[in-house]
Amino acid sequence: MKLTTAVLAAGAAVSLATAVVGAARLGQDSRHQAERNEAVVARNQLDWLAQMSTNADLAKLWAPEGMDVEEYMQLLKANQLICTLSLRDRLGLVRDGHLPFFASMVMSSDVCRRYWHRFGDLRAREAEGDERAERFTDALNRAVQAHSHEHSAAA
After folding, report:
1. What residues have CB less than 8 Å from 127, skipping those under 6 apart?
2. Helix residue ranges, H only, 53-128
3. Number of CB atoms found within 10 A of residue 99's CB
4. CB of 83 within 8 A of CB of 106?
5. Count of beta carbons in the 10 Å neighbourhood of residue 58
6. How far apart are CA 8 and CA 98, in angstroms?
7. How many CA atoms lie within 13 A of 56 on its CB side?
């Protein structure tokens, strides 16, 4: 092999390696940007829920027809807790296998179960097509059902 051929081959290999590393870096940057965007949007939602769940005048504007404003504010507080857990899950901060435990803890609260019975179907429709959101919603559904079975068995 001539020296020039060897140099060209080595240069091509380095160029290819650089391109592969660059593509991986772009993919990683894209994922990190998506996570940052998700966190910003979630922060806005959590801020809105905090305002709505503590300001009766504001909650009155948004409460479903026929629902008591105080009840609506309590349900929004439950939604805030569920949204916080959802964000942690979407960002990968809930370790594999621990989501059912956290879902069970959340659904041990009466107000969270009341929220889920009222708005769980809406959350399921929102989750459609998003595998991670569907998994999260299924975990909460299973936790509510398990609590109902435990509660009826104890009665």
Report:
1. 133, 134, 136, 137
2. 56-62, 69-90, 99-107, 110-127
3. 20
4. no
5. 15
6. 52
7. 5
Question: Considering the entire predicted model, what is its pTM?
Answer: 0.78
The two tokens of residue 117 are 């019975």
Q: What is the pLDDT along the chain (155 residues), one digit of tens a residue?
A: 566 776 567 676 667 667 666 777 777 777 778 878 887 888 888 889 899 899 999 999 999 999 999 999 999 999 999 999 999 999 899 998 999 999 999 999 999 999 999 999 999 999 999 999 999 999 999 999 999 877 667 65
Distance CA 120, CA 113 (A): 9
Give pLDDT, residue 86: 95
Q: Minimal CA–CA distance to 112: which of 140, 139, 136, 133?
A: 140
| Residue 65 per-residue DSSP state | T
Dihedral sign computed on CA atoms, order 36, 128, 65, 75: negative
Decide if 146 contacts 104 (C-beta within 8 A).
yes
Tokens 């009222």, located at residue: 118
Closest of 81, 135, 152, 69 to residue 112, by C-alpha: 81
